[in-house]
Amino acid sequence: MSTAVGIPSPATKLTAHRRHLRRRRRRLRCSADAAAAAAAEEEESEGESAEGEGTIVGAAAATTRPAYSLISAANVQKALRGLAITDVDHYGRLGISKGTSYDQVNVAFKKKQEELMNKELDEEEAKKELELLKESYNILSSEEERRLYDWSLARSERPERYVWPFEVDITQTPTQPPPPKEPEDVEPTRLVGYFFLAWLILSFALSVTLNR
């Protein structure tokens, strides 16, 4: 079957269409591969970024606590076992007693500072004394540090009796009145008393009867 000159035959059109479809599929496949590669690279970079951020956060958390801090997993374990977490008497160092308010801790620290300034100490010794006062002040003026310190004192003083940290936390004010005391059950004691009284009377009666 002849075709007009310059007009492609149906077979030629079909072949050209198939080539166009193959080229289009190839371009789509390349685009998909490129997109997948880009997504993989992005996920890898995000993972590295998250890992780097985690390392930085972990390092920051490790260096957040100052040198004087008592807060650590080891000290919590000691307090749980009823062991003292430190030998330092921070209350005695500032000249105050347990249960002193935070405002009074600040007043006591300033007072100790003035007393230290009035002492005739050399610069190095005065600096050491001031550092010790600052350590005790930082412990007792921080809610977290003082809660752990007071809990450790309560546990080490009476290891046979367990107390919770909130029980020794002066910042935790009770919101409800204490529960009423349960009435003492005196009935068993009364019954035992009656039994002994009856036994004494019976013994006395038997002794009188037998002695006649």
From TrEMBL:
<keyword id="KW-1133">Transmembrane helix</keyword>
<dbReference type="InterPro" id="IPR001623">
    <property type="entry name" value="DnaJ_domain"/>
</dbReference>
<feature type="domain" description="J">
    <location>
        <begin position="89"/>
        <end position="153"/>
    </location>
</feature>
<keyword id="KW-0472">Membrane</keyword>
<feature type="compositionally biased region" description="Basic residues">
    <location>
        <begin position="15"/>
        <end position="29"/>
    </location>
</feature>
<protein>
    <recommendedName>
        <fullName>J domain-containing protein</fullName>
    </recommendedName>
</protein>
<dbReference type="InterPro" id="IPR044199">
    <property type="entry name" value="NdhU_chloroplastic"/>
</dbReference>
<dbReference type="GO" id="GO:0005783">
    <property type="term" value="C:endoplasmic reticulum"/>
</dbReference>
<keyword id="KW-0175">Coiled coil</keyword>
<dbReference type="Pfam" id="PF00226">
    <property type="entry name" value="DnaJ"/>
</dbReference>
<feature type="coiled-coil region">
    <location>
        <begin position="107"/>
        <end position="143"/>
    </location>
</feature>
<feature type="compositionally biased region" description="Acidic residues">
    <location>
        <begin position="40"/>
        <end position="51"/>
    </location>
</feature>
<feature type="region of interest" description="Disordered">
    <location>
        <begin position="1"/>
        <end position="53"/>
    </location>
</feature>
<dbReference type="GO" id="GO:0010598">
    <property type="term" value="C:NAD(P)H dehydrogenase complex (plastoquinone)"/>
</dbReference>
<keyword id="KW-0812">Transmembrane</keyword>
<feature type="transmembrane region" description="Helical">
    <location>
        <begin position="191"/>
        <end position="210"/>
    </location>
</feature>
<dbReference type="GO" id="GO:0009535">
    <property type="term" value="C:chloroplast thylakoid membrane"/>
</dbReference>
<dbReference type="InterPro" id="IPR036869">
    <property type="entry name" value="J_dom_sf"/>
</dbReference>
